[in-house]
Amino acid sequence: MFTSLSQGNFSAMKPPGPALYDAVLLDRDGTLVEDVPYNGDPEKVRPLPGAREALDRLRAAGVRLAVVTNQSGLARGYFTERDMHAVHARIEELLGPFDHWAICPHDDTDGCACRKPAPGLVHEAARALGTAPRRCVLVGDIGRDMAAALAAGATGILVPTPVTRPEEVAEAPAVARDLPGAVDEILRRARAVRPVVPRTGRAGTVLVVRSDSAGDVLVTGPGIRAVAAGAERVALLCGPRGRAAAELLPGVDEIIEWPLPWIDGSPEPVDPDDMRRLTARLAAVGAEEAVVFTSFHQSALPLALLLRMAGVPRISAISDDYPGSLLDVRHRVPVGVPEPERALSLAAAAGFALPAGDEPVLRLRADLPARAVARPAGDYLVVHPGASVPARACPPERCAEIVAALAADGHRVLVTGGPGERELTARVAAAGGTDVGGTTDLAGLARILAGARCLVVGNTGPAHLAAAVGTPVVSLFAPTVPFGQWAPYRVPTVRLGDAGAACRDTRAARCPVAGHPCLSGVDPARVVTAVRRLAPG
């Protein structure tokens, strides 16, 4: 790669605690300047409207900036390296200095690791800026930019132009109208996870709540850790489906398992006696305050009422509905924010923040329960065909074809699943994998995933478990819920599946379209390519 480095002074004061992002990486043509094909002439450089002001806002916030750009015109001989540097000097003259330029000089036929959608430029820029890809945002105008960001574990924000294809917009984790709008979102999200007024002392006992499935509990982990950093003791109220995940979270001192009929997908009728018992149990915690974490389509208010009846004096929750006197801190979050950041922003609104040494990522306890199985030896991939919500599972026959394709590419494939999925895992593994379905609990699955080169999975709990142990994910993502909100968080990812399918944003539990086309059309060859991108070697 050709690189040039410009130095700047970015010593702006930052509030205490870890920042969400260290750096913003920007595509060049169509994002910073008008797209002039194969431009080697500085006189043709035209900044896009508002670009200088937007970049200066990032500089003022202490964010480092880099350009990550494919320049195949070098390989094709349309301009020289000297011409390119003259163009870049003109861009810096008009838009201000960048801390680093990361440039791929290759053509698509060269098979390099740097040309977007490969993640090489993102990795290079992060190294040059002294940070990690997960602490970077990449802003670009086409799908290649977003794919490179995801494959590196960075955040991606798409700024469409007339040449951006509709399917690229549908697949993007986040979309902004223009570069100033993308900067607005970057700075808003960074502010949201830090308390406006940090606490001066530690709280006593705090009750935190996330009553949902294992994946939902896992993505709430950073918010729970933030509360734990500012409290003497943390009790977690969760449902039966989230209990195993709750046992893996750092910062939790006590777990209260109780199904909530306004949260569970298949609830029992509301039992007044059960609600009275729950209220008494909540009162017995002796919590000074409660932080009620919910997903974007759930209401915190029924539980807030019980917490008031239990005598909890301070309650914080996200609520678009008018809460009356049920909440002391009523927080609001825009649609599309990643669930871990959504939880962190509620913790921040309640006055809690992650400590300086704790990054805003998913994490598990260092001491996994003793019953967890040992990590398998050797090199392997994992395919997890099941999902807690049927609409999010890739059809078994397609999963079997994926296993066969991966095995044919020389990979050892383990097929995982829960105790109730043994028939499924046996069917899928028969295509060339090793069936380990039903042989371990969630903690054991975490150890299996921690040793895997990559996980192939739908939008379900194990995807977030992989993110928590740092394992790359090929995400077979049904678009029934927003990808930007539920994608594996801050871990290298490739998204596959039809993002514009008719089921998009329906939140359907069972596929409303015959044949499950959003995932049944996944090409096994593309899964093999995705694994090569995420886990080369």
From TrEMBL:
Q: What is this protein called in UniProt?
A: D,D-heptose 1,7-bisphosphate phosphatase
Keyword Ligase among UniProt keywords: no
Q: Does the keyword DNA-binding apply?
A: no
Per UniProt, subcellular location reads as:
Cytoplasm
Classification via PANTHER family = D-GLYCERO-BETA-D-MANNO-HEPTOSE-1,7-BISPHOSPHATE 7-PHOSPHATASE (PTHR42891:SF1)
Read off the lineage from the record. Bacteria, Bacillati, Actinomycetota, Actinomycetes, Micromonosporales
Q: Which GO terms describe its molecular function?
A: glycosyltransferase activity; metal ion binding; phosphatase activity
Identify the GO cellular component terms for this protein. Answer: cytoplasm
Under InterPro entries, the record lists: Glyco_trans_9, HAD-like_sf, HAD-SF_hydro_IIA, HAD-SF_hydro_IIIA, HAD_sf, Heptose_bisP_phosphatase, Histidinol-phos
Which biological process terms from the Gene Ontology are attached to this UniProt entry?
carbohydrate metabolic process
**One Pfam family name from the record?**
Hydrolase_6
The source organism is Micromonospora chersina
**Which terms are listed as keywords in the entry?**
Carbohydrate metabolism, Cytoplasm, Hydrolase, Metal-binding
Of which family is this protein a member?
Belongs to the GmhB family.
